[in-house]
Write a structure and sequence with these properties.
Elements lengths: L2 H20 L2 H17 L2 E5 L7 H4 E5 L9
Antiparallel strand pairs: 1-2
Length: 73
């Protein structure tokens, strides 16, 4: 095997191990569900920001769609 092939295999092994130890996709889904619940409870909808970070809180923004009243006392 060449050095490039060994490096690629090592990178794949590290990525797989990292996903297995952190919960991988299920953690993302849990964070996404919480973010969506928090946003909708405030009367908003999630919109993508265009960022690809692996973290829902930076990949989506909550846009408030219901009118709000500002108390100006």
């Amino acid at each position: 095997m060449t050095f490039k092939a060994l490096s690629l295999l090592g990178a794949i092994a590290l990525t797989t191990a990292a996903c297995a130890s952190t919960g991988g996709q299920s953690t993302y889904r849990q964070d996404m569900a919480k973010l969506e619940q928090d946003c909708t409870s405030r009367g908003g909808i999630l919109q993508p920001t265009g960022a690809l970070t692996g973290r829902p809180e930076t990949e989506y923004a909550c846009r408030i769609t219901t009118p709000t009243r500002i108390n100006r006392d």
